[in-house]
Specification:
Elements (H helix, E strand, L loop, with lengths): L1 H13 L3 H7 L18 E2 L9 E3 L9 E4 L2 E4 L9 E3 L6 E9 L4 E8 L15 E5 L35 E8 L2 E6 L2 E7 L3 H8 L16 E4 L6 E10 L1
Antiparallel strand pairs: 1-13, 2-5, 3-4, 4-13, 5-12, 6-9, 6-13, 7-8, 7-12, 9-10, 10-11
């Protein structure tokens, strides 16, 4: 069979029959996990090998709790020194894509528009809205409305729950562009809203963030991965400025 295939390819190549060649030889399958950085303005926020471009909130480097494991950045709660990590750079209008995997009974989150001023705001969630990362069935927050995976935490319940089982990778896309916010989980649009207007202010007033005067008010900031004391993995983190 190998001899026949080589002979056929040689014949087609010699006769320049490219159309027939394309019909016989199928295109390779597309790996949806391939990083999109470098394409159409996309830039990597994580190189899969180091924590370059990140640091623990309020510090100059990433603490030892965050480790690189098999091309993902993992939070290891068995290590004492932890904390949320944030990007070195700030972002305003952007399209962010990444994947997450949570441990059984685990909790974490993706936080954006974080104002890094550790003296004034002790935690990233004091300023930045969060997309929830959660084991819905195993963590107590799974029983709370607006606290489940894919929700805009404590603000907006996701319109559906296309989350995958614990231990499987979930793809998230966050598009923040001139006040319009869209969140996609595994390809499904689960949250769409407009930030900073009267409706946004009312959402905050009815949430646990009501006594945090600067929460959700910044129009640009850093992106954070939350250390909630549970094992969580993130990978294929890419961003495009809009």
């Amino acid at each position: 069979m190998k001899i026949i295939t080589i002979a056929l390819l040689s014949f087609l190549s010699t006769n320049n029959d490219s159309a027939l060649l394309k019909t016989i030889i199928p295109k390779p399958a597309v790996d949806c996990m391939i990083p999109i950085s470098g394409k159409e303005g996309w830039m990597p926020l994580f190189d899969g090998k180091t924590t370059k471009g990140w640091h623990t909130y309020g510090k100059s480097s990433v603490g030892p709790r965050w480790k690189i494991v098999n091309g993902a950045i993992m939070n290891d709660p068995s290590v004492k020194e932890g904390g949320d990590i944030v990007t070195d750079a700030e972002y305003e209008n952007f399209d962010l894509k990444l994947e997450w995997k949570i441990s059984a009974k685990g909790n974490s989150g993706i936080i954006f528009n974080v104002k890094e001023d550790a003296a004034k705001y002790q935690e990233t969630y004091k300023t930045g809205p969060e997309i929830q990362v959660l084991d819905n069935d195993g963590h107590p927050d799974g029983k709370i409305t607006k606290h489940r995976a894919g929700d805009l935490y404590d603000l907006i319940k996701s319109s559906s729950e296309p989350v995958k089982p614990v231990g499987e990778w979930n793809a998230v896309e966050i598009i923040s562009n001139k006040g319009k916010l869209e969140i996609f989980l595994n390809g499904t649009n689960v949250v769409t809203t407009t930030m900073w207007g009267d409706n946004w202010k009312q959402l905050i007033a009815n949430s646990k963030f009501k006594d945090m005067p600067d929460f959700g008010t910044f129009k640009k900031g850093k992106i954070a991965l939350q250390d909630h004391g549970n094992t969580v993995w993130y990978r294929n983190i890419n961003i495009k400025n809009l």
